Amino acid sequence: MFYGYIGDTRSLNDVITGLLQGRSGTLELFVNRYFLSMKIKEGSVTEFRSDVELLNREKVNSYNLLVYCLAQMLSNPEGFFAFYEEEKVKGMILENPVSADELMIQATIVRRELDDVLDRVISPYAIFKASDRFASFFEGKSLVEAISLSAESVVSVVRKIKDLLTEGKLDIYEFREEKSSGDLEIDYLMEGVPLRRVNIVAILESLKNNKFSGIAKISAPTYTINLFYENGDIFAVFPVDYDIFEFLLSPDKNAELTLISLDKSIVRFIAIRYLSQPDINSVSSNFMEISKLFLGLSKYKKDALLLISQRRGDIFVVFKEGHLVMSLMESEGIFKPSHTLKFEEPYFLSLFFYKKVDNMPSIVYIFMINEVLSIFMKHAPTKINTVILQEVVKYPFLSFWEGKVRLVKNPGEEEEHKLMNLLGFILDLGAQEIGEQKHQEELEFHLRPLKDIFNLLEVDRYLKIKS
To answer: Residues 227-239: pLDDT tens digits?
Structure first.
């Protein structure tokens, strides 16, 4: 088995024309965010599988599609490869096997032709509209579909499209983007703004109304709170044991606020790094080959976060359905796009497969449990302490410290359900100990100052609280 990093056109050419010379087996490539797997027999490609998506898969010209895939890789030839002596590919069969040398030559020619056309059509997935019968074949097709469904060579198809666009016989009427565009933006709306200068509740209300997606980070010398947003809703808080209600009621004026706007499709993946245990945890690059991870995630179409920790910062690489959708570097608490897959040795690898990390319902339940407990403490502190402690020890994800119930790990769906049951138990206990009406009146009095914060955090989605 051979594997490694591809950093430029020359190294991609060396892998395809040099490594494959006379060999048989399987070559897998993850280059320019595309995945391509080719079956090789004595230096020629006989079968392949790619992640290029076609709406119409009937009568696909497999040779054209293969050349197109490789030509796309040549536009940004950085990534990874692996060569296996076993024949693992099950995909599109080439009627006439193509040698590695011929394939590379054709792809290089096509790359030059594609550059001219893509300047005009913006995206290879933009849909054509024909205004002349000579252009009728292209009606309703994208560039990649036209290439893949044509019996003509790739070069002929691309040149014909260029000529028809120039003559005004072909136009674009709908733009579509491929999943792995890699152009998702990151924007700092605020950075290190002291809370004494702003009204944090008003700002968070604005984030809600404007459907903000990203991270609201509240920082002080001794702590940092991260609020994770999707479409204006807070879906998670980190650390999980921080009382966000108490903070918003009495904000720390010495803290600072940073607002990081992220595409809603990736913000949950960033949250996973803080709120979930990794499936692979901090393995040194000396013991694990990173190319295998990139190729595996792409090949098996996984949703995952790959975290690369190196001396100058952490790299967050987000995969959705096997597509690399964004790569970010976090250095000294600041995120910025990362445009390379070349990592500084030595580094450590952590892998998080996607999972739900929402914890707002649990945060609400914990808050309510502690509010009810604070009322109990006025009436029967010794008895309540004993009863609650006996109940909390049944839940290994909780601790009871300084009269408060606290989370010791991010709760999953099972823990969320148990917290809801625990809240019900404590409410029933309160009604028994001090009377249902008195208990309700005291609870409402306790919660009255939090009315605006309850509205901000939409607590009524989880509880029905009288105000």
So the answer is: 999 999 999 999 9
Alpha carbons 222 and 138: distance in angstroms, whole number: 62
Q: How far apart are CA 446 and CA 438, in angstroms?
A: 12
Q: For residue 327, what are the contacts with CB-CB under 8 A and spacing of at least 6?
A: 182, 315, 316, 317, 318, 337, 338, 339, 341
Residues 6+ apart with CB under 8 A from 128: 121, 135, 138, 139, 140, 141, 142, 143, 146, 161, 170, 171, 172, 173
DSSP structural state of residue 198: S
Strand ranges in 321-461 using DSSP code E only, listed in sequence order? 323-331, 334-337, 348-353, 398-401, 404-407
User: Are 377 and 269 members of one domain?
Assistant: no
| Structural domain containing residue 202 | 186-353
Burial of 310 (0-12, 13-18, 19+ CB in 10 A): middle
pTM above 0.90, yes or no: no
Is residue 181 in some structural domain?
A: no
Residues 121 and 213 in one domain: no
Query: Do 101 and 198 belong to one domain?
Result: no
Do residues 438 and 402 touch, judged by C-beta distance below 8 A?
no
Are residue 166 and residue 196 in the same domain, yes or no? no
pLDDT digits (tens, 9 = 90+) for 156-166: 999 999 999 99
Contact 94, 148 (CB under 8 A): no
* 267 and 228 Cβ atoms separated by less than 8 Å: yes
Rg (CA), the chain: 28
